[in-house]
Design a protein that fits this description.
Elements lengths: L1 H21 L6 H18 L11 H21 L2 H7 L3 H13 L1 H10 L2 H14 L3 H9 L1 H23 L10 H24 L19 H34 L9 H10 L4
Helix pairs in contact: 1-2, 1-4, 2-3, 3-9, 3-11, 4-12, 5-12, 7-9, 7-10, 8-9, 10-11
């Protein structure tokens, strides 16, 4: 996992430096910093010493869930990785392999399917609900393989969920901004139900934490309530901020829609010198 994250960081920065040096259409430094921060957060949740803390605390588990689904994915998509990562590849490889694969009709159909807001919403909600079922959460804590699958599900669900919101490929989106605001509001509902249940429940939902070592002087029930309150607060703040940004941009742009090229095509043109 560390090697994959390092490879992505080096590839992205190579593409970012290339675009910055060869084109006026450079990606801002804050986006590059956001991409690197997203990778660091994924490392903290998945591969750092902190990653095993969810076996002892539901609050730590909730931090992992929030990082992988609600914090790291928008940082990554905002950095335009689909445009910059191909720019780090040799131009011949981009022209002969990457671009033909991206243009292959089955891949395009799959991309449209996976990028549909309904599919993205269902995928993220399924990952959220499924891994908070006591039996599955217990399984993930006691099995390294299932623990890795859980983290992968959270990250994949988060990346899918934020795709329609951030729209890293603007030309592929046909959704109206106000439908995205509704999309974000509907996404808060399963989080509110789950977090409210954890906060107000008077019984311990995950008995496995009763036998887990306690590193802080917090009861299992208090830990459960803190986890629910954390999810309730963080998800609400992030989704409200995202909704306000989408609504503000919609109002400022009016009804004007500008068709843009695929980031892969832009990256390919940059590599071949077609874009000044």
């Amino acid at each position: 996992m560390i090697l994959v994250l390092v490879f992505l960081a080096l590839g992205y920065m190579g593409g970012w430096l290339h675009v910055r040096a060869s084109s006026a259409q450079a990606v801002g430094a804050w986006r590059a910093a956001g991409f690197l921060l997203g990778l660091v957060l994924i490392w903290i949740a998945v591969a750092s010493p902190f990653a095993s803390g969810d076996a002892h605390s539901l609050t730590v588990h909730m931090v992992h869930h929030l990082v992988l689904m609600s914090v790291a994915p928008p940082l990554i998509w905002l950095a335009h990785p689909a445009r910059l990562l191909p720019s780090a590849l040799p131009a011949r490889l981009t022209q002969s392999v990457v671009l033909p694969i991206a243009r292959w009709p089955p891949i395009q159909r799959l991309g449209r399917l996976l990028g549909h807001p309904f599919v993205c919403w269902v995928a993220a909600t399924t990952a959220l609900v499924a891994w908070h079922v006591p039996a599955l959460l217990t399984l993930s804590v006691h099995s390294n393989a299932w623990h890795a699958i859980e983290h992968a599900s959270f990250l994949a669900g988060g990346l899918l969920f934020w795709w329609p919101v951030v729209q890293p490929w603007p030309s592929s989106s046909t959704e109206r901004p106000w439908s995205i605001v509704l999309y974000l509001f509907l996404a808060t509902l399963p989080c509110d139900v789950l977090s409210g249940f954890l906060v107000f429940s008077e019984r311990i939902v995950y008995p496995m934490y009763l036998s887990a070592p306690r590193h802080v002087n917090v009861s299992v029930l208090d830990d459960q309530q803190r986890a629910g309150a954390l999810m309730w607060t963080v998800v609400t703040i992030i989704y409200v901020v995202a909704g306000v940004i989408v609504a503000t941009r919609s109002l400022s742009r009016g009804s004007l829609r500008v068709k843009e090229r695929s980031p892969l095509q832009v990256a390919c043109d940059l590599r071949t010198g077609l874009v000044p």
